[in-house]
């Protein structure tokens, strides 16, 4: 990803542009998504252990059943993580659709189909719609 040059110091930025510059700086400092996933997974495991030690529980408002926090740091918790991972992914309904869509988009991108399609959309766009079409293609690319 290319970095945009910093704004000139002599120009005073309005609140929107300052916000966008701040968001860009923070976004550029974020680690890769897989690293974020790992950090959040570790955080969930640690929080589950803390919640278990504090004997936290909640009541399901539908069934009125009390649900107690279970530590994922115990041998049973680690076993649950390892044995239920596949079933959690398989039983998560949107995952199949997302994986197939990502596979299709990846193949289309690597073959050049998406860039060719976006170029063709801009070429055949009517003159009065060229600005929204270019914005659309910029977002989609």
Provide an overview of this structure.
- It is built from six helices and two strands.
- It is mainly α.
- The protein has a two-stranded antiparallel sheet with strand order 1-2.
- Helix 5 packs antiparallel against helix 6 (130-140).
- Strand 1 and strand 2 (66-68) form a beta hairpin.
- The model has no long low-confidence stretch (mean pLDDT 87).
- The two termini are 13 Å apart.
- The chain folds into two domains: 1-91, no CATH class; 94-141, no CATH class.
Short description:
This protein is mainly alpha-helical and 141 residues long. The protein contains 6 helices and 2 strands; from the N terminus they run ααββαααα. The chain folds into 2 domains: 1-91, no CATH class; 94-141, no CATH class.
Q: How are the secondary structure elements laid out?
A:
Elements: H1 15-29, H2 33-53, E1 57-59, E2 66-68, H3 75-90, H4 93-111, H5 113-124, H6 130-140
Antiparallel strand pairs: 1-2
Helix pairs in contact: 5-6
Residue share in helices? 55-70%
What is the arithmetic mean of pLDDT? 87
How many domain units?
A: 2
Number of helices: 6
How would you describe the shape?
Answer: elongated
Instruction: Count all strands and give the number.
Output: 2
Could you give the distance between the termini?
A: 13 Å
Q: What structural category characterises the helix and strand content?
A: mainly alpha
Low-confidence stretches: none
Rg, Cα atoms, Å: 24 Å
Strand percent estimate: under 5%
Please write the string of helix (H) and strand (E) elements.
HHEEHHHH
Q: Which strand order do you get reading across the main beta sheet? A: 1-2
Tell me the major beta sheet.
2 strands, antiparallel
Oligomer: single chain
